[in-house]
Design a protein that fits this description.
The structure is a homodimer of 304-residue chains. Chain A is α/β, with parallel strands linked by helices. The first copy, chain A, has a domain of 166 residues: 3-Layer(bba) Sandwich (Glucose Oxidase, domain 1). In chain A, 23% of the residues lie in helices and 19% in strands. In chain A, strands 1-12-11-5-7-9-10-4 form an 8-stranded mixed β-sheet. Chain A has a two-stranded antiparallel sheet with strand order 2-3. In chain A, helix 7 links the parallel strand 9 and strand 10. Chain A starts with a helix and ends with a strand. Strand 3 of chain A pairs antiparallel with strand 3 of chain B, so a sheet runs across the interface.
Amino acid sequence: MQKFAFLGLAIFFTLVLCLSINAAQPQPPLWQVYQQSLKTAKYVDLTHTITPNIPVWSGFGTSKFEPTINPKTLQPYNYKKDGFEATHYDLSTDQLGTQLDPPAHWNPEYPAIDELPATFAVRPLVVIPIQDKVAQDPNYHLTVKDIQAWERRHGKILEGSVVFVRSDWSKEWPNPELATRTKFPGVSLDALKFLHLQRHILFHGHEPLDTDSTPTLEGEAWLLHNGYTQAEGVANLDRVPETGALVTIGYPKFKGGLGGYARYIAICPPNWSYGVSVGQIPESPLQKADKSLHWNKQLGVRVR
Amino acid sequence: MQKFAFLGLAIFFTLVLCLSINAAQPQPPLWQVYQQSLKTAKYVDLTHTITPNIPVWSGFGTSKFEPTINPKTLQPYNYKKDGFEATHYDLSTDQLGTQLDPPAHWNPEYPAIDELPATFAVRPLVVIPIQDKVAQDPNYHLTVKDIQAWERRHGKILEGSVVFVRSDWSKEWPNPELATRTKFPGVSLDALKFLHLQRHILFHGHEPLDTDSTPTLEGEAWLLHNGYTQAEGVANLDRVPETGALVTIGYPKFKGGLGGYARYIAICPPNWSYGVSVGQIPESPLQKADKSLHWNKQLGVRVR
């Protein structure tokens, strides 16, 4: 009898345990945000892939990728022999690819990349289109009027937003000749001042590798000497909405770093025509590729 | 009279214009999410700052930072002379600092870092604590029972979550001796299989630089040979809640890259005791520092 009572108790507690795990516990508020809004959103990468051959200012020299070397044998690690590989990067500059410029790039009194606050994480994304005007004039620069026209269509720009300027300049990427042009779509100093002083945005970003085509780079000078950050080399702005998306901001945290290697991903509404949603493609586990990754000496990168 | 009519019309249209901009237009849904939930959240950085002297496996050799050189003069760019500086990185490995390992680190048939989907952006964050057990046994490894204990407290782990294991191992960071230890807190293979096969998480992460202390690294082998990703070198897990936070995932997009230089930022509830909220500290413009940034030859980095 005692044995049955014990068994009964054991079953009872097991049931309570199972129920307490599986019962529809109310989700914490931020997890509800994920389940209801972020999971079904469409994700669009706004980042260029970095290779040794992408457009970069000639004053920075060239960068090189190599397989990581075993310091004992001086041979590169190899999947077959060692079971793994890794990559050695010789990067001549942290002004490479899609970037986030901290003000210390020009002014050592302001923060370096590792000193930006953790609140540089996810923000409302405003995309202001100037590609039609750039098609007429490759040296067109965003004006205050262009910003006001955006606001008439979509409402006032939210404080703390990230504002990216769509010019379609990056459609020729990775043509290295892009970095040598003296005429390219820019952002006027007046527009930068309006965005920061009147609208109090977090930062703006543009597709080219410089803010404007003036001889003194007057826009970048004003931004970085006054403690503002900016994004450069932003991609795929033709695949995100002008309003209503968010953007995640990621970048490696190199001590005293002055730029570099940023990652921007747009989080667009679920009915948006570009991008992928969580669960739409295999992510864990990821899908096997048809071809194996291997080092290509001529290109200086691993390819399939 | 005509003049007054014209003036009246002009005033009328100006008013309409102003109202149409400033009227409380309904915000797009994802911007409401930002305004209501993300803006007031507390942001906690889970990333180590990368320097040439942080703990790293001796088999990868050392890395070096230098100021970027002007290829014409062979002199480093300098704030006083050139108006800007930049950084040259010689990184012996992409397995450095806080990492996101793509499966191609061990298996070339699976994706490299630039091939991960854009949905690796923001996820629910689960933090499973084992630091009390690690205090008794520095070689303690997370078990399925530890995960089940977490679920009894907080409910079933959400599909697609990021699961970080708190061991407090990183409290000794950046002591280089950390990378030489053969006993350190790990994650058992059974726990990894439970998280992926039963709970279908996106990826797990741990504070040490390896997944477990077995001679064959059996956990990492299982993960990467089966197409899963993992985070290593995660920091500050003592400053985030066990449940209810989100985490942003950022990393540079090097072609064919096999690890590296990731950024994780936890987005915690507004009443959480650690972290900063948007608008709580100056971010645009950022605050001037007391001391100027300058190159320190001995440390091999820019410091203040």
